[in-house]
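Think of the structure tokens as a kind of shorthand, similar to the way a musician reads notation: each symbol stands for something richer, in this case the local conformation of the backbone. In the example below we present two proteins back to back. Begin with the first one, reading the sequence and then the tokens, and try to describe in your own words what changes along the chain.
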Amino acid sequence: MTDLDLAAQIRLSELADRLRENDPLSIGTALFLDQVKAKVSEQLTPKLRSMSTDFVIKELLTASQAQKHRVTIRSVGTVQHIGNGIATLSGLPMVHLEELVSFPNRVQGMVLNLDVKHVDVILLGPDTGIRGGDLAEATGRRLSIPVGMSFLGRVVDSLGRPLDDNRPIMPSEFRNIERIAPGVIARAPVDTPLYTGTKKIDALLPLGRGQRELIVGDRQIGKTTLAIDTILSQKGTDVKCVYVSIGQKKTSVLNAIETLKAGGVMNQTTVMVSSPDDPPALRYLAPYAGVTIAEFFLDLGMDVLIVYDDLSKHADTYREISLLLRRPPGREAYPGDVFYLHSRLLERACRLNEENGGGSITALPIVTTQRGDISSYIVTNLISITDGQIVLDADAFNKGSKPAIDIGRSVSRVGSAAQEPAMKSMVGALKLELSQYEEVARFARFSTEVNDATKQQIERGQRVEAILKQGPHKPVKMEDQVILFYALTKGFMDTVDPADIPEFSKEMLVYVYNHAAQCVDQIRYRGDLNQEIEDELIREFDNFISYWEKKVKRTS
């Protein structure tokens, strides 16, 4: 053996000893070097004579790095029972709550219940092909969904998969659907208006960006219409919208999608659908997946409007799952943690301060009542979580008063802090006038004689009520509302019959747009009224009144 071969073996021996002493996990590498060292003199001697010792050591180290010994520990369970979207498994000793579990048919489930001897998993897909005795493996991951700008204009399910066509969605990233809401220090006050396009709401129950306003009412009296109109009124703004349908009929969802497309706001809206025939897990996860998509825009500093339609069905789904998981029922058969179900969801709606991007999520949850009872369990829970409620009255709806908002029971806890100065100055006393009118009109029905002051108050209230009426899917811009309320406040509608108020308002807006377009632009961009704008509006109102009176005389 040459001196070169001997030097190589000595270096190999030293390297093996050092690996054993410093890193017990490298025993496999040391053994590999021992094997190579034993064959140096037999097989590699001719080659070693033409190489330096350092080069040989380097080559051997490179080869040794490929010799890796891995120990894989799998957490496996056995299916004991399967049915109704719930799988009960034994085993899975190291599984965590909300961890994903994979089944033989490639369907995944999420752990929702941990017991001493078994684990309950809600399935995220059909249970076809899963049988008792099948093995299920814990993945070590939590449920996450794709998010990104490419979701705007698309219809997806609760897992972010497209439902509208076969075009794939290219996500920007994946996010866990459960997330801790921003803390108080990261938030900013709610003082920027978010206009809904509904005059009754924008004037009397103003909403701000970052607010949570509950929409309450019986079935089929316009709850979804209010929410869709709010999305429609965001056309031309920088507000992104997310509409989450939870257990709604597919025909209703299709109508909503068509309305959004016709209104020109689908390109800034994501529609998430969980239909009644979906597994309970997808209906349960839908609102959390929707707010996860909204939070992607929030973190980019954008303003987002999200609608949950509706949380009554979401609570019913959670009750169904909880009863299948053998959790003890409480009030109205709901589990005791149903308050936490919605509180952790709605707390994620907020407005962030400038240090955290300055974005906002405005939430409009919808809840269904039975015969106008707002004292039921889920409704009272949501009222205590949100920043106000818009209550719809079935009797008013049946009488033709649309939108059928009950002003007496509705409230916005943000109030005029989220109104532009122009709107605030016009509607300051409007809510009081309307409430007084309803009270006086109720007693006037039983009286044969009404004095002039009361008669004037009733006529004034009728005009206020008439100007607040509007049809579905016809949102009114903020500047148009200011002009109408200014004309009402200054007495330009006092001579107009209440039945003619809708037509009078429509023609007056057209006249103002044609003759005082600059005033309209200043109201839109400044949000305030100065003396110059008021003088020009009064002048154009006088001209329009003359035109209107001549028109009435011609038709009479």
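Once you have a description of the first chain, move to the second and do the same.
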Amino acid sequence: MTRLSLLLVAVLACSVAAVDAKPNVVVFLADDAGWGDYGHSGNQLANTPHVDSIAKEGVTIDRFFVEPVCSPTRAEFLTGRYHGRMGVSGTSLGEERMDLDENTVADAFHAAGYATGAFGKWHNGSQWPYYPMARGFDEYFGHPAGHWGEYFNPELEDAGHMVRTEGYIVDICTDRALAFIEKNQEKPFFCYLPFTTPHSPWAAPEENWSHFKDQPVEQRSTLPDQEDLNETRCAMAMLENQDMNVGRVLAKLEELGLTEDTIVIYFSDNGPNSWRWTDGMKGRKGSTDEGGVRSVCYWRWPAKIPAGHTVTQIAGAIDFLPTLTSLAEVPRVGDKPLDGRDLSPLLLKQQTEWPDRRIFNAWNGKVSVRTQTHRLDDKGQLFDMIADPGQTEPVNKKETELAKALMAEVKAWRKDVLGPEAADPAKNKTKHRAVDPRPFPVGYPEFPNTILPARDGEPIGEVTRSTRAPNSSYFVNWKTKEDRMEWNVEVHTAGRYAVTIDYTCPVADAGSTVELSFNGAKVSGKVAPGWDPPLYTNQDTLPRPPAESQMKEFHTLTLGEVELRAGQGPLVLRATDIPGDYVMDVRRVTLTLLE
């Protein structure tokens, strides 16, 4: 073969490789950041240059809608389907779990040969097979439950094992994401970085808090008398830290020569978690009004997406899966009908037919619907969002036919997505007190550790949770033999299990005998030694809200081993002997399949 022939072969090989090359994907998801929390949105107090750069170097989706709270949005991003279709009805107590027959965007990229990793807050199921590594991700590190009570030196979960870490939670999870990118730089990767901030508790690194604690807040909330200015300042400090970590990832992509062919996305999971500036929009987190469900959404892909472009058509979290699989030319996994649309023609600035659409937002029995120009709120009031973006004057009388048509569409959507009983909103008030009736799975050989936190259990008798918010709570007030706690579980694999309990106990009260039982099998042991550490004092920038637990260092008690049969039933933890005044506080029970 001549030298020219060799050169042509080499050129052709490079061309084929370039055609076959798949783009990397990095998805940043903020937790409880509002549309108005960023410099690119016009917030003069925000310091978010790296997040803003994604918009400047890529595409802004101007009217982008998520759900009013965390887990529903995350489920919709992962599946391209409305959360009501897949069993996600709440944010804790097991209600955040996606049904096991749902397929995720990570499933699709994993099947296509991508390395897949998630680093941060998952919030769509804590036990296998609801766990991230059973939903398409090769790696997981973070906290699979909802909001977390430790932001400094937190205890986090590394592929099913609790580990004590050092540093600030967002920095730590970003470190793991950077290591994942570095490790997989020679192959396509899908990196999901769901940040923990600016969700409360209000805890920012001192470096960032010092930049904001004395700053005036000139741009105020739509309801300024309800705004806590220190919470606003702390949110800005937490977002400044988050932005620094976005910058670290962008810098790593640049260092490795991956910027050009990496799709980078940034968005948030709901409206702001306190009353902050939203440019006059109505509502905040938990509301189905515009301010509760509008998020920033930025896409950057230098190789193909034009810089500085703005998509004006409405879009939502349900659109991520069809859009990402289309852009990367990755086949979907599964055949369930999607609610989302492929946005790639809009992102690529291609001429395309784009029929009018509806985007529905739902939470706690309330449903609103957004068209390109209007929003029908959960009370049936219609607003012209072009002329009245703050939803101040209903236009039902002026636009009677549109209001009537949208009300009918909401009723049909309720029936289709939430079930026939949900068609009547008066009968569809979601309750968030009882634990989800679906059992928590235990005992898969491919993932032998099953962590059952207090958040997934039911306190019986005088036992209570440490605070009202279950996600980062523990059981307290355990004093009598009548008190107990139960987890509704389904043991998948019969076999021998090691049992541990993470606990604290006043030193003088050590020595109670506790028993864990399931369908006739029992294991018991003594609560010893006493372990009564103080509550953490290094966590909070601002006083912790009463609904959130003050955390402490729990000790691990090895209870023993027990033979469990496959099947469903209550896993019961109770005391059979209490020599002192108190049994213990319980953070979690862990069952490890041994054989």
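Compare your description with these statements about the second chain. Residues 1-19 have pLDDT under 50 and may be disordered.
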